[in-house]
What does this fold into?
Amino acid sequence: MAGNTFGKLFRVTTAGVSHGPGYLCIVDGCPAGLELSVEDLIPDLQRRKPGQSKLTTQRKEDDAPEIWSGVFEGKTDGTPVGILFRNADQRSGDYSDIADKYRPGHADYTFDAKYGHRDFRGGGRTSARETVSRVAAGAIAKKLLARAGIRVLGYVKQVGEIIADIPDPTAVTLDQVEANPVRCPVPETADRMAKLIDDTRLDRDSIGGIAELVAVGVPPGLGEPVFDKLKADLGKALLSLPAVVGFEYGAGFAVATARGSQNNDVYLPSPIHTATNRHGGMLGGLSSGEPIVCRVAIKPTSSIPRPQVTVTRSGEPTEILVRGRHDPCLLPRFIPMGEAMMALVLVDHWLRNKSARLDPLG
Ligand SMILES: Cc1cc2nc3c(=O)[nH]c(=O)nc-3n(C[C@H](O)[C@H](O)[C@H](O)COP(=O)(O)O)c2cc1C
It folds into this structure.
């Protein structure tokens, strides 16, 4: 299986499956000298963790990181940072009656078709539990970015038909996002979203939505103009997260109905900036200095507690009832994952950008 490493200079490799002994994360390319301990990783891991509220799965996972390498006397030492998570609370019995059936909306059939087997105890390598490693790596990336004055924050913009009105995405604070279990910064909208999620759960169903991710303080020029455009890397990073089916930035899909005269963001002087930010902080694949604003559409959780039509491995029609404990809406727990991937892309390009010109190299 290829494709378990992400990034060019700040490279993250993850390994592990949901029902194995645990997960591994190796961050290669983190500069030496960054103060780092498990306490730096815990806040975002807590935000990702299952069992936070009745809006998320009641599965209990410790998500306790152990730093195995790369830190000496409290600081990164320039060697690979190795992080280990031991799996707990594995209830393989929850999955035993689906061993021979494909769950609709999951990677069961596609994985089996590719590898000739699958880990029927859960999603195996395709489980969203894998993101525990990404969130830990993302916390390191965020810490490095903070030194450059770059902040990444995400929040829930939409659940089902309920949309939060957020005129200035850059004004949203972490405290506002964390003030409610939905992670929507508008309290009245968050309450309505929470009710919708709970009603959906009681209806034995699931619901999707949209997450918005914002990076402020990004200097102009991050990204590479051809294949490694910042927008392309952000799109790949976010679409590599489970359940993400759409990515847009700035005005996004709304540009399809706009005129150039409406869509262009005009420049203003001193310092050079744009009057509006329909370009979402990226032009020609490079950051413009304006805030980077992305949105991702997240599908409703595939595991729903009701019978569904499917087939067995040998192709016989059958029914499946997916048991186990699943989030009725993935959005609240997605937020730290989306932030982590955005931070990984930005820190990689921030480091790469340092070799773009000869003069700073001396
Ligand atoms: C935070 C989060 C938690 C998830 N937990 C579950 C879950 O409990 N049950 C489920 O059916 N899907 C869950 N998923 C989604 C599946 O992992 C994903 O839909 C599946 O692997 C198929 O991949 P795809 O949707 O990217 O095509 C979760 C996704 C995220 C982002």
User: Anything to note?
Assistant: The chain has a mean pLDDT of 94.
